[in-house]
Amino acid sequence: MPRIDFNNVDDVQDFSPLPDGKYLCRVAEVEEAATQYGDEMWKLRFVVESGPHRGRYIFDNMVFSDAAMKRVKLICSRLGLDISRELDLTPALIKGRSCYVAVETEEYEDQEGNAKKRNVVPFAGYERADGAPAATTPPAAKASGAEDDSEEDLPF
After folding, report:
1. Around Cβ 48, how many Cβ atoms within 10 Å?
2. Which CATH number characterizes residue 111's domain?
3. Per residue in 26-43, pLDDT tens?
4. Is the pTM of this model over 0.85?
5. CA 149, CA 142: separation in Å to the nearest integer?
6. Rounded to an integer, what distance in angstroms lies between the CA atom of residue 83 and that of residue 70?
7. Residue 72: which domain range?
8. How many domains does the chain have?
9. Closest-CA residue to 103 (of 116, 117, 118, 121)
């Protein structure tokens, strides 16, 4: 029979959705996985760093398919990575980095048919935490008239 000191066990967390809004977050965990179609995917777990919801988590995914690479680029940019060059992206490069993450509440139906609510991060729901503008295209490319992939041009 196990002997447990419950003074060293955290209480149950609040799993209700966060209010819609923008939160300063840090990447706490990156889990490597694959989508049902076989594309590489990282499951991101952000921890809210300040305010009344400090310590709560926001979950999102980065999918490395051709169709999702614009979002991967956007997230990496908002996390402060230099996206003006080729990059060997690893979980260690983004773990511990901070940015603002926006969440919205969506309703869904669980497997038993019960109506539930959860947080979702919109396509462009990331903002740099340091206040610097997100550089999605190198300055030299903008000056030469190259295509700009900034969030204003996103089709969503």
Report:
1. 20
2. 2.40.50
3. 999 999 999 999 999 999
4. no
5. 10
6. 11
7. 15-130
8. 1
9. 121
